[in-house]
Amino acid sequence: MEIKKYKNYDFNLLEINERNPLIVALLLVGINIISFLALIIFLSVQKIDNPFLKLTVPTVISFIIMPKLLLKFLKINDNIDAFRYLKTSILVFISFLLVYIFTFRAKLKMDFMFFWIIHYLFVATGEEYIYRHLLINLLGKKMSVIASCILSSFVFAFILHNNEALITNLFCRLPLALILSGVYVRTRSLSLPIIIHTIYDLIVMVI
């Protein structure tokens, strides 16, 4: 049965050939979570203290590199447009950073502040790539865009963040995921969702 398109949005950003998109989605989430936990445990055992190696590197590997390798292994073509709305996103982010640094400069050490800005940019990029771009496009092969956004948001809030408080996931992460899904579907770009996600994480860190 052909899925109705949402206005100008289509699900042709991923060319999955004859593969079952739901199985690919399960593999994607499973590999993401397992590889991230394995890396965190390994680095903890090795007593790595460098925050970049301990936090940022596992994020890049598990949320960006591993999904890319999985798509390549399964011969799935990803036609993401990384530059759509990029100028707007950069302008919004720079404006936010100026206010953020001025407001919280006394609360955070400047060297760590810049680390967290870079770190959360990587976190947001990886999470938006998997749980917005890939999952919505994969699920959209079998269900409506609304159902895809809702299901991917539930996976993001309650499976990826299963170690967090249920109340926080229900009233913070789930609404955030739904909003980010809506922005992604409307713009067909990850630029704005990544910036909004990063801004959210940076604000939560200091409140």
From TrEMBL:
<keyword id="KW-0378">Hydrolase</keyword>
<dbReference type="GO" id="GO:0008237">
    <property type="term" value="F:metallopeptidase activity"/>
</dbReference>
<feature type="transmembrane region" description="Helical">
    <location>
        <begin position="55"/>
        <end position="74"/>
    </location>
</feature>
<feature type="transmembrane region" description="Helical">
    <location>
        <begin position="21"/>
        <end position="43"/>
    </location>
</feature>
<keyword id="KW-0472">Membrane</keyword>
<feature type="domain" description="CAAX prenyl protease 2/Lysostaphin resistance protein A-like">
    <location>
        <begin position="112"/>
        <end position="203"/>
    </location>
</feature>
<keyword id="KW-0645">Protease</keyword>
<feature type="transmembrane region" description="Helical">
    <location>
        <begin position="112"/>
        <end position="131"/>
    </location>
</feature>
<keyword id="KW-1133">Transmembrane helix</keyword>
<feature type="transmembrane region" description="Helical">
    <location>
        <begin position="143"/>
        <end position="160"/>
    </location>
</feature>
<keyword id="KW-0482">Metalloprotease</keyword>
<dbReference type="GO" id="GO:0004175">
    <property type="term" value="F:endopeptidase activity"/>
</dbReference>
<feature type="transmembrane region" description="Helical">
    <location>
        <begin position="166"/>
        <end position="185"/>
    </location>
</feature>
<keyword id="KW-0812">Transmembrane</keyword>
<protein>
    <submittedName>
        <fullName>CPBP family intramembrane metalloprotease</fullName>
    </submittedName>
</protein>
<dbReference type="GO" id="GO:0006508">
    <property type="term" value="P:proteolysis"/>
</dbReference>
<feature type="transmembrane region" description="Helical">
    <location>
        <begin position="86"/>
        <end position="106"/>
    </location>
</feature>
<dbReference type="GO" id="GO:0080120">
    <property type="term" value="P:CAAX-box protein maturation"/>
</dbReference>
<dbReference type="InterPro" id="IPR003675">
    <property type="entry name" value="Rce1/LyrA-like_dom"/>
</dbReference>
<dbReference type="Pfam" id="PF02517">
    <property type="entry name" value="Rce1-like"/>
</dbReference>
